[in-house]
Amino acid sequence: MAENRQEACEDGAKIKQMTLPPTSSVRPRGLRFALLALPVIALASYSGWIVWLGRESAPPSRCYGTAVSGRLMHGRRLPYSGVNFRAYSLLGYLSGRTFMHGSIRDAIISSYARVARERPELRYIYGESSWPWGGSIWPHRTHANGTAVDFFVPLRTRAGEVAEMPVSVLNKLGYEIAFDNTGRAGDLQIDFEAMALHLVALDQAAREHGLKIRRVIFDDNLQRHLSATEAGAKLSRRLPFLGKAWIRHDQHYHVDFSVACS
Ligand SMILES: [Zn+2]
Question: Mapping DSSP to helix (H, G, I), strand (E, B) and coil, where does residue 71 land?
Answer without folding.
Answer: strand
